[in-house]
Amino acid sequence: MIETKHKTEWFWVFYGFLFYVVFHFGTMIVIALLSRSTDGFTWISYLLFIAGFLVVGSFIGYNSRGVTIREPAISAGLYVVVLFLFFFSRRGVESLTHSFFLEFSAMLGIGLLCGFAGGYVGEKLQEWKQKSPA
């Protein structure tokens, strides 16, 4: 049964953020270093971005005690903001274009939704495991 009131477990927010860094950013660095061409790199990046948020969110929801659905979403949002600040610091003020903000907004929305959805799936898997006979 899913409870409606609970405190945010910052432990899982922190670990979720670290998992997002490792699985998304680390993977992007490896792909960029191994790739000789940037053709298709953007689509691979988007797919890994979405899959990473779903997988990490599910992992957190499944492995944590209690109800941790919003923690993956919080850590996903935090990761996207840090990613935005990283790219902004690398590109400078001239990068602050309308399309950059649209892309950032889309990444933030997708990250929050996928983190939340992954946490929900993980909680449902945890609930299903507890109900199944051992």
List the helices and strands and how they pair.
Elements: H1 10-34, H2 41-63, H3 70-91, H4 98-131
Helix pairs in contact: 1-2, 1-3, 2-3, 2-4, 3-4
Question: Could you name the key traits of this structure?
Answer:
78% helix; mainly alpha; 134 residues; elongated
Description:
- The chain has helices at residues 10-34, 41-63, 70-91, 98-131.
- It is mostly helical and 134 residues long.
N-to-C SSE string, H for helix and E for strand:
HHHH
**Percentage of residues assigned to helices:** over 70%
- As an assembly, this protein is single chain
Q: In this structure, how is the largest beta sheet organized?
A: none
Strand percentage:
under 5%
Q: In angstroms, what is the radius of gyration?
A: 16 Å
Unreliable spans:
none
What structural category arises from helix and sheet content?
mainly alpha
Distance between the termini: 19 Å
Total of helices: 4
> Can you count the beta strands?
0
Overall pLDDT: 83
Summarize the structure.
The protein has 134 residues and is mostly helical. It has four helices and no strands.
